[in-house]
Amino acid sequence: MSAPRVLIIGCGVAGPVLAVLLKQKGYDPIMFEKVRQLGDVGASLMLMPNGIKVLQLVGLADAVKAESAPLQGFWEGKATGEMLAESDLPSTFLAKYGQPAAGVKRTSLNMMLKDMLLDLGVEVREGWKLATVSETDEDVTALFENGQSVKGSFLIGGDGIKASSRAAMLNLQGVPQSAPNYTGLVQVAGISETPEEFLEKAIKRNWYGQGAHVIAYPISPTLTSWAITMPEDQEAEETWHLYTPGSIKTEAGNLVTMLDGWDPTLHRMITSAQRVIKYGLFDRAHLQPHQWYTERCVLVGDAAHPTSPHLGQGANQALEDCYHLSIAMPVIDPKSDDYGRALETLGKYLSKNIFAPFAEKRQPRTSALVKGARIQGELRVSRDPQRCQERDALIRDSFKDSAAVEAQYDSLLREPFQQTSS
């Protein structure tokens, strides 16, 4: 009997990792990606120990760390460059959690994941955008916008905040899909040569000013990724807007003018940008656990719990989803005494036995983090001078209790399983 076919929608972060984890357990995953050719996209991701632990399971953690510059510290400051607080907590992550925190260029990670799939013989179909889904007690059929359909044992939707899989599943449940909600904030992100002042130690830095927040962290020994978050009343495009090489200098100049009076090192970094993109920050209506799945379909990552980037946990929570869903799935081994029981688990009780417990386990944690990210966004970006002073005082005071800071990160980073450094 052939291995159960798994239809995975979205070749971002979660989809490829799940494909490999399920292939390791005897499934036959097929990856579907709406873009015609995966390539250069976005800016960067901050991978924390909870996410890198999952990448270790598919053999990519070492490659990510080799390309990056694992974090050794946090720095919080005013727009002018005056320090509010600092911490060397990230330097303890490797010993405590088995993995460090490390920034990585999004394109690099995406291509590592795609190459991993191809090396393992996983079929990747690019230019296949999901249209609708139909299901029975035993299988699921995905219909794509190219007019073709594919049948599988079950379907996993991991295609991000604009997920077609989410819309298709909610349609099966009779729930209308609402448009993404604009948060009133936009980000302009870039990649630059790391300023000489920042080369000595890999630190994630935050600058807080009136009407803007800037974050920067290394993504290689010589490159830094940065992002400016600011209010914009006119709704920005949800998709990435990549500036052309000819327009980068103009946009960087506009940003430096906007950040007049800010840290001069930040100005130099922005001016030397090799890449600049702009995008609006959106989220979607909150989903209850039972809305994460249907009889033969389940959502993971931003398709299930889209979040703003202010806690840096979007990709990391998607990777946690991958781990928990994969360990819940039975091993498919025709030579095993449990083979019949495994096939029975994948039958008409799949949603009850696998999807429901998965969603009920993950939804409370991801929901709390989504809310926390929204609160952080509101805290970080304010036009009101009094609120900015209160924010700066809160940041300064919060780092005085190092034990509390450590406990806050521990609640995130000890998941999804314990790993000791080797």
From TrEMBL:
The keyword Glycoprotein does not apply. Residues 6-326 form the FAD-binding domain. Residues 1-19 form the signal peptide. Transmembrane segments: none annotated. Keywords: FAD, Flavoprotein, Monooxygenase, Oxidoreductase, Signal. Gene3D superfamilies: FAD/NAD(P)-binding domain. Pfam families: FAD_binding_3 (PF01494). GO terms for molecular function: FAD binding; monooxygenase activity. The keyword Zinc does not apply. PANTHER family: MONOOXYGENASE, PUTATIVE (AFU_ORTHOLOGUE AFUA_6G14510)-RELATED. Belongs to the paxM FAD-dependent monooxygenase family. This is FAD-binding domain-containing protein. It comes from Lasiosphaeria hispida. The lineage of its organism: Eukaryota, Fungi, Dikarya, Ascomycota, Pezizomycotina.
